[in-house]
Design goal:
Jelly Rolls; 4-stranded antiparallel β-sheet; 2 domains; single chain; 314 residues
Length: 314
Amino acid sequence: MDRLKRISLISFILFNLLVILSMSLLPLAASTTTVTITPSDDAFVMTYHPNDNYGSEDTLNVDPRSSYLTISYIKFNLSDIPDGAVIVSAKLKLHDSASCSDVEIKVYRVDGGDWDESTITWNNKPTYDEGIAYASFTSGDPGWYEIDVTDLVEGWVNGSYNNYGLVLKPVSGSCCDQFRSKEHPNGNHPQLIVEYVEPNTVTTTVTQTITETQTQTVTETTTIANTTITETQTETITTTQTINNTVYSTVTTTLANTTVTTTYYTTIYETTSPTYGNQTVNYYTDLANQLVPLVMVIGVICTMLSLLLSATKR
């Protein structure tokens, strides 16, 4: 049994060394990627000229006045963001080029189908979901405005809804405000800045079964009244030990920070036969909670010492 225990100990250390080596191949933190995307289409539509197209204009107008109600459509191509990416943040940047009194603007998701900037008008514009405002901001002074649209972009990327773009709709104010469109000759075009990270999940399982059979012969000699009685008993003991070492490593992301979480499940099952009476030897030892924290520090040292000891006893 001592030999089996030595083999088990060495095997356990070697398995944990394999685990450590496999974990060393994983990134300690998943890096984020940031992309800046300009619109594929943008245009404004207005009630005052319901059949006119303004897709070639160099501004995106928003006007809350009922007689001149004007809203703007913007669409971004997200094909550069890989499938399964985790969206960390998404910001819509617009440059206000006009001086206007405060205009409150809400961002809605287009849900009525695709559209093209060269053909969209007030009368044929696709519908948008006014039940959820993904962002709200107040414009007025010239300059850049940065709007958080993380939830909206996350829904597009994970497939919760189709990417037909967004709508800028003014809900209060008294004048027409103007943002630069992608056609503006002096730059400062609309931008969608997306930071994302790809999730990484790795599962490693190592299983080892050790079976050892020992034959033990006991001879007992008794002499009674010049009569010698010899009794010989032979017993075979078979011990099987299975070690399962499974590592689940999951990379998750919270805002700008990436956390690597590793969970170890290490169990040893040992059965011994023959049985004695009605008792069966059955050991279940959960070593994970006891040894795994130490293995990360001394695993390599223990392995080398165990191999040296084994070589010395040969």
